[in-house]
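sry for the spam today, last one i promise. struct tokens for design, 114 residues
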């Protein structure tokens, strides 16, 4: 198994009761999610992985603009109001483990707290 330093997980689901489409809304001319992505890029090393997990095609398009970032399509069951962050993190980590990649640490960067 290949062991890397850290995985930066940026969760950004489509649905939101309080503020619809908040992760793609513009803040000072940029989508909110871009702040978390760019921060992860600025502090990561070549032995880290940065990934965005979402069920939103718009977030996938934004993510694809960054070569250093991987996009993981989130299953609908993990994109509901009652879905736990723990289950989202477990989903991402297990996907990498299937590809024989493990991490020393997990960094969670929520776009709504840039």
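last one done:
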């Amino acid at each position: 198994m290949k062991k890397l330093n850290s995985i930066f997980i940026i969760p950004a689901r489509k649905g939101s009761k309080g503020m619809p489409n908040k992760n793609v809304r513009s803040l000072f001319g940029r989508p909110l999610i871009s702040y978390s992505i760019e921060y992860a890029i600025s502090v990561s090393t070549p032995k880290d992985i940065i990934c965005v997990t979402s069920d939103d095609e718009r977030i996938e398009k934004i993510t694809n603009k960054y070569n250093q970032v991987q996009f993981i399509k989130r299953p609908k069951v993990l994109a509901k109001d009652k879905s736990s962050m723990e289950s989202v993190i477990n989903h991402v980590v297990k996907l990498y483990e299937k590809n024989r990649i493990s991490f020393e640490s997990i960094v969670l960067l929520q776009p709504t707290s840039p």
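Residues 64 and 71 are 7 Å apart (CA to CA). ok im logging off now
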